[in-house]
Amino acid sequence: METTIPSFYHETRTTAGIISRRDWTREWWDECRSDFELVTAPPVLQELRQTPVPKRERALEMLEEVRLLEPVPAVDEIISQYLAHKLMPADASGDAAHLAFASYYACEWLLTWNCKHLANGRKLRHIRSVNDHLGLKTPTLLTPLELLDR
Q: Which residues are within 8 A (CB) of 88 and not within 5 positions of it... i.e. 6 or more apart?
């Protein structure tokens, strides 16, 4: 899972869309997460460390029991390839890192609320094409809402 999951769990903004994503995230985390083997990666922790207090501490605390994937040089090369193939813009290198870790470690899913660069059906063909070229499995990119028991 990437940064938006613990971030939305502790979201305080009050627009309708934000509240919905927060509530769906909390429902999935509180009721369904035990159905999955959760993993995250160092870029998630790095991004969360830049989050304002007190959200930062609560979000990082959520991940204390989540297995942390090890950084390896191959992931940096995958990120470079994603950016070279314009899979996402350079300013979205964190998003490229999330996808690179999930792809390198052959994760079944990448859970995210980032529907601009990751869980975006319009980008999926390009993501699969680049990953196929790199010999990587493409994780299913989805939101907590899609994993709720409903």
A: 82, 95, 96, 99, 117, 123
What are the DSSP calls for the chain, one per residue?
--THHHHHHT----SHHHHHHHHHHHHHHHHTGGGS--EE-HHHHHHHTTSPTTHHHHHHHHGGGSEEPPP-HHHHHHHHHHHHTTSS-GGGHHHHHHHHHHHHTT-SEEE-S-TTTTS-HHHHHHHHHHHHHHT-PPPEEE-GGGGS--
Contacts (Cβ under 8 Å, ≥6 apart) of 37: 67
Q: Could you report the per-residue pLDDT of 20-32, keeping only the tens digit for each? A: 999 999 999 999 9
Tens of pLDDT, residue by residue over 122-147, are 999 999 999 999 999 999 999 999 99
- At 84 the pLDDT is 96
The count of residues in the chain is 150
Contacts (Cβ under 8 Å, ≥6 apart) of 141:
99, 109, 110, 112, 118, 119, 120, 124, 127
